[in-house]
Amino acid sequence: MWINQGTSRKASLWNRIQLSCGNVTMEITQQDVEKVAQLARLAVTPAEKDTFAKQLSQILKHVDKLNQYETTGVEPTSTVMGQVNVFREDVIRPSLSSDKALANAPEREADGFVVPKIVEER
């Protein structure tokens, strides 16, 4: 079990969400949104908390509505069109040589481009 003293509030929210999926509709509160935002390290404004709470509550109501349908024996699908791999086969074709590809490079090293370092070291 993943619940410990430090995660009791997370467990409480998770239990409430599970209840909502069991034909007991619930409302997501601004406090729930605030807690999830804190866990995700997101800054949300009071207006966003209100909007997200309403939107998430609507999603849970929709899931609750979907739960009324019998789906026993229905195979999960990712598409209703019955499509399978629609990608083309990989075909080796002639391409630019390294010299041609690097001809206009401002700076190169061996067979590659030299680009400025953008990741700072700590």
Keywords summarizing the entry:
122 residues; 39% helix; mainly alpha; flat; disordered N terminus; 4 helices; 3% strand
Total strands: 2
Q: Number of helical runs?
A: 4
Strand order of the largest sheet: 1-2
Question: Uncertain segments of ≥5 residues (pLDDT<50)?
Answer: 1-7
Strand content: under 5%
Question: What's the N-to-C terminus distance?
Answer: 36 Å
Shape: flat
- Supply the helix-strand structural class: mainly alpha
- Kindly state the mean pLDDT as a whole number? 81
N-to-C SSE string, H for helix and E for strand: HHHHEE
Instruction: Report on the biggest sheet.
Output: 2 strands, antiparallel
Query: Helical proportion?
Result: 25-40%
Q: Measured on Cα atoms, how large is the radius of gyration?
A: 26 Å
Q: Describe it for me?
A:
With 122 residues, the protein is mostly helical. It has a domain at 8-66. Helix content is 39%, strand content 3%. The chain contains four helices and two strands, in the order ααααββ. The chain has helices at 8-20, 30-39, 46-66, 98-101; strands spanning 108-109, 112-113. A two-stranded antiparallel sheet has the order 1-2. Strand 1 and strand 2 (112-113) form a beta hairpin. The longest helix has 21 residues, at 46-66. The chain starts with 7 loop residues before the first helix and ends in a 9-residue tail after the last strand.
Q: Topology of this protein?
A:
Blueprint: H1 8-20, H2 30-39, H3 46-66, H4 98-101, E1 108-109, E2 112-113
Helix pairs in contact: 2-3
Short structural description:
The protein has about 120 residues and is mainly alpha-helical. It has helices at about 10-20, 30-40, 45-65, 100; strands spanning about 110, 110-115.
